[in-house]
Amino acid sequence: MKQSATEGSASPPTLGARMLKTRLSITRNARELTAENGFAGFTIEELCSKVGISRRTFFNYFASKLDAVFGHAEDGLPTGALERFMSARPAGIRGISPTLLSDLVTLVLEQLHLDETEIRGAHGFFTILHREPELLQRMMQVGPERQAAFIAQVAAREGVPPSHPGIAMLVHCLQFATHQAIERYVKASDGPSLAEEFLLAVTQTQDLFQQRIQPE
Question: What is the four-CA torsion angle of 179, 143, 153, 65, rounded to 10 degrees?
Answer without folding.
Answer: -110
